[in-house]
Amino acid sequence: MPINNYGINIWGDANYIIEDSEVTLNHLSKPSLLSIVNEIRQSGLRGPIILRFPHLIQKQIETLYTTFRRSIQEVNYKGEFKAVFPLKVNQFPQVVEAITTHGKAFNYGLEAGSKAELILAMSQTSSGAPITVNGFKDTEMISLGFMAAQMGHNITLTIEGLAELESIVEVSKACNLKIPSIGIRLRLHSSGSGVWAKSGGSDAKFGLSATELLEAINLLRENDLLDYFHMVHFHIGSQMEDITPLKRALREAGNIYAELKKMGAEKLHAINIGGGLAIEYAQHSADRLRTYTIEEFSNDVVFLLGDIMNKKGVEHPDIFTESGRFIVASHAVLITPVLELFSQDHQEKSLRIKESNPPLIEELLELNKLVNAKNSIEYLHDALDHMESLFTLFDLGYIDLQDRSNAEILVHVIIKKALRLSKGYPTTELEKLQIRLQEHYLINASIFQSLPDYWGLGQRFPIMPLHKLDEPALRSANLWDITCDSDGEIGFSSSSPLYLHDVDLDEEEYFLGFFNVGAYQETLGMNHNLFSHPTECSVIIGKEGYSIENIDEASSLLKVIASLGYDETQILIQLKNSLARSTFITEEEKSDTLQKLELYLYQNSYLRTTN
Ligand SMILES: *Cc1c(COP(=O)(O)O)cnc(C)c1O
Questions:
Q1: pLDDT (mean) for 204-220
Q2: Is the CB of 339 under 6 A from ligand 1?
Q3: Fewer CB within 10 Å: C terminus or N terminus of the chain?
């Protein structure tokens, strides 16, 4: 039995289990994450690694479709369920390939929000699968939509404002290309919940108000385009933690749909409910985020829409979703070696008590000896007070460095004893002290590159060691990344702590996994301090074993520098010349140094020492 399962039962969705003290995939041959990582590192690769598991993408796609199809069957809903994957959530080729491969059976399509994403969608979607296009569009982007239609794609351009509709009219008049389907994004007065809930609401960045909708219908009719108007769309925001706002939006959008049908939008046949299906990231039950299941979500959508249409005597529309986070969040794990532990825990064994000590040190020794459950808080305050005085004495030159070190150690030991003795009486002061005693684990990764939503939004991700799960993890931890930025830190409060193992990194390696990082983190991540996208690969798990595919190593130092616009060759020449001109070493040493330098330049920018 694992001593601490790190909430794997809360966030893990049965994708992982703990077996033989390691995190193991709960699929077919059940390899452990550590065995996969070790195999990749055998080739000499170092630094953080993103492991992708396409079977988890497949699982999510299947879950989405089967759940909606079941709801549809249960209430005898007449429309069909359709879905597209919003590329902005993860555009990396290995991810898009898994999506198009496993989505084929369902005719799963892609959603694009920019010209580049539209080109990706046009080139990656299997023919017949839907493409939807959201976001602001210029005439060029609209022309691209016409080209896609001409190429045979089932594409819908969702307009965000009247000006875009005018551009569609303009392009349709200017060319003979096939006309794409037209969608209209609704500006609803109901809005979402959670950190990302800025997409809905009447002050939202996107969508048409009721008045604009009426104008749009007129414009379409006047230009003989009304028959191309096929879809209404809304999106109330990402990571929707509660279902109530969605229900409100569905009622509003459903009624708008029915009204539009009655107004003569005969070919209108689909409601696109956007994305927003949430993922559970919490590691402690008290922090749970999502308050509904996918079954509840799909039942609500299907039932509510059916109910509105029945009441208004309108045919049931097809239901489109654009959930992205739900599809890809779970497929990726970031694995980072721990490079160092910065012990805040001053050990009593390092004390070097002198024959004769300053009186305040003698007092600290007494406090340490006599601290008990009754006096712990009082003694703790005395100790902190003495430490301040001792620091002042040191600044004034009255005590030496050994005295100062002894003071630091004694005070830390007293704090630890006081914390232990006063358990059950948590005060804010004690909580703050507890955090001061946290061990800092240095991880070989950049939070800015790999967990930008933690940096920007305080979004938590599940974190746990990949191994040693049969040993007690007693160190209250705090994580530091390797950027030179004080924001490159993941802190933990005493109410939701992370406990890690006490490891001697000279003796053994220690790996942490950051889970559910497959949505948004990768293209949002930035090269702060010039740490680039980590090494990535896909792992295909079979009945007998697994295979590691498409290992794509993090960019080399030179490539990272070149990506900023520097000339690689120029840099290389400059470094070589400087070395050649240097003095006091032999030609042989120069050539050895040059060889080493060249090796470094072609390695990735993450640290290689120890791990
Ligand atoms: C971002 C976005 C989505 C995806 O949202 P998720 O929360 O990832 O499901 C869907 N549709 C639109 C229009 C979006 O902007």
A1: 91
A2: no
A3: N
Considering only CA atoms, which residue is closest to atom 12 of ligand 1?
A: 274
pLDDT digits (tens, 9 = 90+) for 509-543: 999 999 999 999 999 999 999 999 999 999 999 99
DSSP-derived pairing of the beta strands 499-500 and 475-480: antiparallel
Residue 437 confidence (pLDDT) = 76
Domains of the chain with bracketed CATH: 8-53+333-343+435-555 (2.40.37.10), 54-322 (3.20.20.10), 353-434 (1.20.58.930), 558-601 (no CATH)
Give the separation between CA 122 and CA 452, rounded to whole angstroms. 29
Atom number of ligand 1 nearest to Cα 275: 9
Atom of ligand 1 nearest to the CA of 196: 7
Mean pLDDT of 227-246: 95
> What's the chain's average pLDDT?
93
Phi first, then psi: give them for residue 301, nearest 5 degrees.
-60, -50
Q: For residue 571, what are its two tokens?
A: 């840099």
The verdict on the CB of residue 276 being under 6 Å from ligand 1 is: yes
**Ligand 1 center to 440 CA (angstroms):** 36
Strands 49-52 and 535-541: parallel
Q: Each residue of 287-297: b (16+ CB within 10 Å) or e?
A: eebbebebeeb
Of 81, 67, 70, give the one whose Cα is nearest residue 271. Answer: 81
Q: Are 288 and 10 in contact (CB under 8 A)?
A: yes
> Exposed, middle or buried: residue 87 (CB in 10 Å: 0-12, 13-18, 19+)?
buried
Residue 235, ligand 1, Cβ within 6 A:
yes
Rounded to the nearest angstrom, the distance between the alpha carbon of 204 and the centre of ligand 1 is: 14
pLDDT at 425: 65
How much of the chain is helix, strand and coil, in % rounded to 5?
Answer: 45, 15, 40
How many angstroms separate the alpha carbon of residue 85 from the centre of ligand 1? 9
Q: Which atom of ligand 1 is nearest to the CA of 206?
A: 13
Question: How far apart (Å, rounded) are the C-alpha atoms in residues 240 and 237?
Answer: 7
Q: Which of 88, 137, 297 to mutate to test the pocket of ligand 1 (most atoms within 8 A of CB)?
A: 88
**DSSP for residue 356:** S
The answer to whether 49 and 536 have CB atoms below 8 angstroms apart is yes
